[in-house]
Design brief:
The complex is a heterodimer of chains A (about 300) and B (about 280). Chain A is an alpha/beta fold and about 300 residues long. Chain A has one domain: Aldolase class I (TIM Barrel). Chain A is about 30% helix and about 20% strand. In chain A, the strands form four sheets. Chain A has an eight-stranded parallel β-barrel with strand order 3-4-7-8-9-10-15-16, surrounded by five helices. In chain A, strands 5-6-14-11 form a four-stranded antiparallel β-sheet, with no helix packed on it. Chain B folds into three domains: about 5-95, Translation factors (Elongation Factor Tu (Ef-tu), domain 3, Beta Barrel); about 105-230, Nucleotide-binding domain of ferredoxin-NADP reductase (FNR) module (Rossmann fold, 3-Layer(aba) Sandwich); about 230-280, Dihydroorotate dehydrogenase B (pyrk subunit), domain 3 (Ribbon). In chain B, strand 9, helix 4 (about 160-165) and strand 10 (about 165-170) form a beta-alpha-beta unit. In chain B, helix 5 (about 185-195) packs parallel to helix 6. The two termini of chain B are about 30 Å apart. In chain B, the strands form three sheets. In chain B, strands 4-3-7-1-2-6-5 form a seven-stranded antiparallel β-sheet. Chain B has six helices and 16 strands. Classes of the chains: A alpha/beta (about 300), B alpha/beta (about 280). The interface of A and B includes residues 274 and 280 of A.
Chain lengths: ~300, ~280
């Protein structure tokens, strides 16, 4: 008798609670030969914007201690070409498809994209990426000013304006680059978000001391990987105390052990990000590992370990 | 389209060639059977989170159920890989990328010109093997290899190319072997002196960016097609993260989009020299 791994995020029912995070799994086609894509709990697309973006200058990534920095700059073909060229393959896989959307500085663009996606039955849910640290930032300016996810009022009004246009599951992706993340999560919940996903990457930088140059062209990028895991986990735990809607937890999950930490801290589902680059089949290894853990500990349902941290 | 595999491979041999260079041989049935000249593999050098990402290495040589990578020790990851022992297991994904176009088998194509700078010899040796394999009695094609290295002690594969029947010309920065100067100086000398009719050939190049840029200029000037293989830091290596892009001429260039980005790992690493914007 195998444990139940099904979870519900808003209207979305997932066969298992392991998703792949936006920006780390392309449009899934890149991974076709490397794992059985049908078995992933849900696939979150690379973030799409209304018009296409060519992305940031090179170098865009560098490795850091137990992590990596990236500043890709949301390179994507734009929503129409995404729907024409990328979505049909994604939708053919059978895993629920969550489309991630963003805009540089225009809440109206978010709403326009949500409206467009609402009409497409292949899209199962929408993730509002209000926390990408790599757009709207000129070279040398350092920390980007004013992510939507850094302001509870802006978060509330953005989510509210999108909520109006969709009955699909709406997920709000939060930034860790804030003083109090639960305040932002509460704003998203109040505005009608069905779930929150946290965390996006941490602002960070790295310097080549010989050249005296930043290792990525945009100077500051987003830090991900196991280096951020303890902070991400703490944020999930903090948010879990404050909100009712489900949390999709992420931040440096590399294996089943680290995935379980996020469930115990309060995540209803987890997302694998940077680890997809290191081991493309890690998401399915984690699904297997969760099943083994539950069976071994005679736990019948994944939902019973969500937030089950003993104090 | 070639196939891609993720495999835990046994190390057959790991040989230090000098202070800075080593050759590692992996046992694999599928990767050598599918690899094309110019393709690469993504190697996870340890099971720990440090170093975190895989490292890309060109396929250097294939045997029956084995393949080699030829590597330079440049940092922590390559040092760890250099210390592998026979019997160790390493997680490898490959073969990746597009690989070189070997060109038609017909006789009138003239010599193939290979230009290698530094570690560029690694994938070009495999390419030379592939081109040599395609020789037939009525298409005895000449392969001329230009190798550039910092100094004599950094010169790799000279003998191996000769054993394949290639003509080898060497340039070193310090003049300790061959011409003192850049490998592209050698190439230019050759192109200038060789009559047009004999020059009907193709150039294949791999090495540092400035060298590849110079090869591109020469290929344009002498009107020879050139394929160049780019080296870039990579995160995923399979085209998902968009972390290793290169500027190329846009197909429908406009003022708003004068260029496009292509992924070095997936759309490359081999590009036509004429499409790159340097």
């Amino acid at each position: 008798m195998s444990a139940n791994l099904k979870v519900r995020i808003g209207k979305l029912e997932l066969a298992n609670p392991v998703m792949v995070a936006s920006g780390t799994f392309g449009y899934a086609e890149e991974f076709t030969e490397l794992l059985d894509l049908r078995k992933i709990g849900a696939i979150v697309s690379k973030t799409i914007t209304l018009a296409g973006r060519e992305g940031n200058p090179m170098p865009r990534t560098c490795e850091t201690p137990c992590g990596m920095l990236n500043s890709i700059g949301l390179e994507n073909p734009g929503i129409e070409r995404f729907l024409e060229q990328k979505l049909s393959y994604l939708a053919s896989l059978g895993s629920p498809i969550i489309v991630s959307v963003a805009s540089e500085n225009d809440p109206g663009e978010f709403a326009a994209m949500v409206k467009r996606l609402e009409k497409d039955s292949r899209v199962m849910a929408i993730e509002l990426n209000i926390s990408c640290p790599n757009i709207k930032r000129a070279r040398g300016k350092g920390q980007g000013s004013g992510l939507i996810a850094q302001d509870p009022k802006a978060t509330y009004s953005l989510v509210k304006s999108c909520r109006r246009f969709t009955r699909k599951t709406l997920i709000t992706k939060l930034s860790p680059n804030v003083t109090c993340i639960s305040e932002i999560a509460l704003a998203a919940q109040a505005a009608g978000s069905d779930a929150v996903s946290l965390v996006n990457t941490f602002s960070g930088m790295s310097i080549d001391v010989q050249a005296k140059r930043p290792k990525i062209a945009c100077v500051v990028g987003g830090l991900s990987g196991p280096a951020i895991r303890p902070i991400a986990l703490r944020m999930v735990w903090e948010v879990f105390q404050k909100i009712r809607i489900p949390i999709i937890g992420m931040g440096g999950i590399m294996d089943v052990q680290s995935a379980l930490e996020f469930f115990l801290a309060g995540s209803s589902a987890i997302s694998v990000g940077t680890a997809n680059f290191v081991n493309p089949r890690v998401s399915l290894e984690i699904v297997r590992g969760i099943r083994d853990y539950l069976d071994k500990n005679k736990i019948k349902d994944i939902r019973s370990i969500v937030g089950a941290l003993k104090l | 389209m070639s196939r891609v595999f993720q495999e835990r491979l046994k190390v057959i041999a790991c040989t230090k060639l000098s202070e800075s260079y080593f050759r590692i041989t992996f046992a694999s049935r599928r990767i050598p059977a599918h690899a094309l000249g110019g393709q690469f593999v993504q190697v996870k050098v340890s099971d720990s989170a440090q170093p975190l990402l895989r490292r890309p290495f060109g396929v250097h040589r294939v045997g029956k159920n084995t393949f080699d990578c030829l590597c330079e020790i440049v940092g922590e990851a390559t040092r760890i890989l250099s210390e592998k022992k026979p019997g160790d297991f390493v997680d490898v994904i490959g073969p990746l990328g597009n690989g070189f176009d070997y060109g038609p088998r017909t006789k009138d194509q003239g010599p193939r010109i290979l230009v290698a700078g530094g570690m560029g010899v690694a994938p070009l040796f495999f390419l030379a093997e592939k081109i040599a394999e395609r020789r037939t009695p009525n298409a005895e094609r000449k392969i001329i290899v230009f190798i550039g290295a910092k100094s004599k002690k950094d010169l790799l594969c000279e003998k191996d190319f000769k054993q394949l029947g290639c003509e080898v010309k060497v340039a070193t920065d310090d003049g300790s072997k061959g011409l003192r100067g850049r490998v592209t100086d050698l190439l230019e000398q050759y192109l200038r002196r060789t009559p047009n009719a004999e020059r009907r050939s193709r150039i294949y190049a791999c090495g540092p960016k400035p060298m590849l840029k110079q090869v591109s200029l020469l290929s344009k000037h002498y009107n020879l097609p050139a394929q160049i293989s780019l080296e870039e830091h990579m995160a995923c290596g399979i085209g998902a993260c968009l972390g290793c892009v290169v500027k190329v001429r846009a197909q429908n260039a406009s003022r708003r989009t004068p260029f496009a980005y292509k992924r070095v790992c997936k759309d490359g690493p081999v590009f036509s020299a004429s499409e790159i914007i340097w």
